[in-house]
UniProtKB/TrEMBL annotation:
Protein name: TetR/AcrR family transcriptional regulator
Cited InterPro entries: Homeodomain-like_sf, HTH-type_TetR-like_transc_reg, HTH_TetR, Repressor_TetR_C, Tet_transcr_reg_TetR-rel_C_sf
Keyword Transcription: yes
DNA-binding region(s) in UniProt: 54-73
PROSITE patterns: HTH_TETR_2
Coiled coil: none
Pfam families attached to this UniProt entry: TetR_C_1, TetR_N
Region (Disordered): 1-31
Domain HTH tetR-type: 31-91
Assigned keywords, A-Z: DNA-binding, Transcription, Transcription regulation
Native organism: Kibdelosporangium philippinense
Amino acid sequence: MERSGGGDAQETLRLLWRSEQPRSGRGRPPKVSLDKIVAAAMTLADQDGLDAMTMDKVAASLGVGTMTLYTHVPGKAELLDLMLDSAWQELYLESTSDNWRKQVERYAYRTVDLHTRHPWLRMVSTTRPPLGPGLLARDNYLIAALSTAGLAAIEVSAACDAIVTFVESAAAVLAEHTHAERFSGQSDADWWAARQVFWETTFDPERYSAIQETWKKGGFNRTAGEAAANAFDLGLKAILDGLAARAQPR
């Protein structure tokens, strides 16, 4: 798994916030811009996965030499941070309701769509996220919504973290189900069919009686993708119901 937050901190912050424009030699305009480099890198990662996104391939897709990229961005670590924050900016979060639950749900389902468009997001650890405009816009939107839910300030912060952790993780799982055949070369149905013998020869219904009973009651009558979607909906509702129960009357 790739990790965000790598590379030179000051240089990454400068690039994230576009605080300075790269200088071109002898007054000539640069062959490519930083925004075009980030967009090209994201397209490569979308199509072929994060491992395929190398500086050489990004340069080739833009029709320039690899060294041209290094006049804009120091390396892959910084480029990955720029890609991640650029993806978060695609959420386009704006408050269109006074209902804090609806605002959180808007973020949640747009994040699912985001991970579906950019399946490489699931391969990036955000324990140390890039401190860019995309991250701050996301967190500011959620904190603004949760601040109207009747929670104490410290609970607002914790709730924001809990929601982001659940939504980002569950969205990654949903995206993986969506792209499972592309990633593995095998459909979901074929994968399970190849393991049908397990249930016939290995599974012990007495030892795993809870699974057996739930199975008999139809608890598993859905595809893996449907199960992931149901888990996302239920988990999000449970979190929001729990926060609502903690809210104090205003």
